[in-house]
Amino acid sequence: MSYYVTTPIYYVNAEPHLGHAYTTIAADILARHMRQRGEDVFFLTGTDEHGEPVAQAAERLGVGPRELADKNSERFRDLVQRINATNDFFIRTSDPEHEAKVQEVVQKIHDNGYVFEGTYEGYYCPRCADFKTDAELVDGNKCAIHLIELEREKEDNWFFQLSAFQEPLEKLYADNPQWVTPESRYNEALSFIKQGLNDISLSRARLRWGVPVPWDESQVIYVWIDALLNYYTALSYARPGEDLTDRYWPARHLIGKDILKFHAVIWPAMLMAAGIEVPKSIFIHGYLLMDEHKMSKSLGNVIDPFEVMDRFGTDTLRYYIFREVRFGNDGSISAAGFEERYNSELANEYGNLASRSLAMIGRYRDGVVPDATPAELDELRGLPGRVSERLDAVDLTGALEEIWEAVRRLNRYVQDEEPWKLAKDEANAQRIDQILYSLAEGLRSVSVLLSAYMPDTADRLLQALGQPDLGLDSAEYGARPGGAQVGDLAPLFPRIETAAA
Ligand code: ME8
After folding, report:
1. Burial class (CB in 10 A: 0-12, 13-18, 19+), 267
2. C-beta of residue 357 within 8 angstroms of C-beta of residue 414
3. What is the rounded distance in angstroms from the CA atom of residue 214 to the CA atom of residue 218?
4. Distance (Å) from CA 9 to ligand 1 centroid
5. Residue 338: enclosing H or E segment and its boundaries?
6. Interior angle at CA 248, CA 246 and CA 254, nearest 5
7. Rounded distance, CA 306 to CA 288, Å?
8. Is the whole model's pTM more than 0.85, yes or no?
9. CA dihedral 151, 269, 44, 2 (to 10 degrees)
10. CB atoms near residue 445 (< 10 Å)
């Protein structure tokens, strides 16, 4: 089965921050997990480079938009590498292949009769690249998101007849209750549709930085139309000489709640207008907050993900953000929170369990995992199935909780059994065999499942256990016999200095 997962493409008007890393790591966890299940995965991320958000930022900096896009796109690429994301392609909307395909699809929408000439009059936020209704303004005529004064615009544009898709969209929602999740977001999008859809501008007259409208080169295609199409265009040129569209389309999108309307309303309508299948699903997550506020470039309260990883490591970041904030909801993160979970959960619970288990296998069984019947540990039985189920529902936090319950169960088990005491008497040899086998198998099972979240850590531990296989079909606790030779393992989460209060 194919599994095509995408992140939003990020604006290159500034450097990446932790909010961008968040969605990309989430998509990477799903991509890695699905590969472990043997699915044929394609994972896409990239950068959104056209439109006012980038053109105006470049102007403020006194550089050309392409120069700014080249520089910051490179930073997003660096981030993708640094967070250890396994994306299969990195799209830039300035790629000539993307631009050509955008023109092709927009021409199709036009030829199918959903484009007309009109005049836009109203407010437009250049930072959001969004046309604002009066209800979306605050303090008179300010953008509610960026709190900047908006000017009333009047422009002759090409329009997309969004209103023609009112009924098809309502039907799409009625027929597919899981199409947008969580449910609260489904309801939000549906109620937006039910309020009545207005046609939207498909082009911008005053802007030069974009893809020209194919039948009217005096205008460029509205940046959101250009950007949304990335999910579709990428498959046509990600592999030279090969078109992957039939193999992977339709996509599963992961996005933040700020861009719900574009993805859950405008995007499926555009696809319907072009005669292309709509996405399989859209999952909408919440905001990472700093001191109760959305972390964002415009508010200036962003965390630099590179700094966090320098300090705590990539795997800690990949773990912490899904453990601390329930995926789907908003939630605060903090340096103190990072330290706390690093020390109490990663170092003490998982790291310690690994090092003491390996040390005992070394000491009591010459480094060979004994063969035995696994101890009855409920939290371990059926764990791969439960984790898969949670990840099918894009419940990244729920899946991690399942795994962590198993880690804690293993810690209680070793604490209760006290093998170091039993080892003093040869008569306990069989029990020791069972304990050591159960610990090795438990650690193997949780590590195979954790590897989607913490790939380097899990890999190191599985290598030390002599069990490097990541396949989910053999991840069940007790699925492997004893006999593996264990190796050395440096501390997985060495103690870090806590910041001075
Ligand atoms: O909107 N918490 O790009 P963008 C969680 N180019 N996620 C966050 C976040 C936060 N505080 N801040 C940002 C755009 N994000 C368009 C998208 S897609 C066809 C075009 C993440 O650079 C989250 O995924 O503003 C959000 O949706 C995205 O970054 C917005 O990135």
Report:
1. buried
2. yes
3. 10
4. 8
5. helix 335-341
6. 140
7. 16
8. yes
9. 170
10. 27
Q: What is the pLDDT of residue 499?
A: 57
101 given a catalytic annotation:
no
**146 part of the active site:** yes
CA-CA distance, 191 to 177, in Å (whole number)?
A: 14
Residue 315's H or E segment, with its range, is helix 314-324
The answer to whether the CB of 258 is under 6 A from ligand 1 is yes
Q: Is 244 helix (H, G, I), strand (E, B) or coil?
A: coil
Question: Catalytic one among 20, 50, 101, 253?
Answer: 20
What is residue 342's DSSP assignment? I
Q: Could you report the per-residue pLDDT of 293-341, keeping only the tens digit for each?
A: 887 777 777 788 898 899 899 999 999 999 999 999 999 999 889 999 9
What pLDDT shows up at residue 360?
98
Q: Which atom of ligand 1 sits closest to the CA of residue 10? A: 22
Q: What share of the chain is helix, strand, coil (3-state, %, to 5)?
A: 50, 20, 30
Active site residue 17: yes
CA proximity to 440, closest of 416, 414, 422, 415: 414
- Which amino acid does the sequence have at 2? S
**The pLDDT of residue 501:** 40
Out of 56, 258, 333, give the residue to mutate to test ligand 1, the one with the largest number of ligand atoms within 8 Å of its CB: 258
Least confident of 241-255, 293-307, 347-361, 454-468: 293-307
146: pLDDT strictly greater than 60: yes
Mean pLDDT, residues 110-136: 92
Cα 378 to middle of ligand 1, angstroms: 40
Q: What is the 3-state secondary structure (H, E, C) of 38-83?
A: CCEEEEEEEEECCCHHHHHHHHHHCCCHHHHHHHHHHHHHHHHHHC
Average pLDDT, the chain: 95
- Please give the single-letter amino acid code of residue 230: N
Q: Is the CB of 98 under 6 A from ligand 1?
A: no
- Does residue 297 have an active-site annotation? yes
Rounded Cα distance between 452 and 214, Å, is 43
Examine the pLDDT at 128 and tell me if it is beyond 90: no
Q: How far is 295 from 289, CA to CA, in rounded Å? A: 5
Give tens-digit pLDDT for 69-119: 999 999 999 999 999 999 999 999 999 999 999 999 999 999 999 999 999
Residue nearest to atom 29 of ligand 1 (CA): 20
State in Å, rounded, how far the first CA of the chain is from the last one: 51
Q: pLDDT tens across 84-98, in order?
A: 999 999 999 999 999
- Beta carbon of 49 within 6 Å of any ligand 1 atom: no
Question: Among residues 130, 121, 353, which one has the least CA distance to residue 262?
Answer: 130
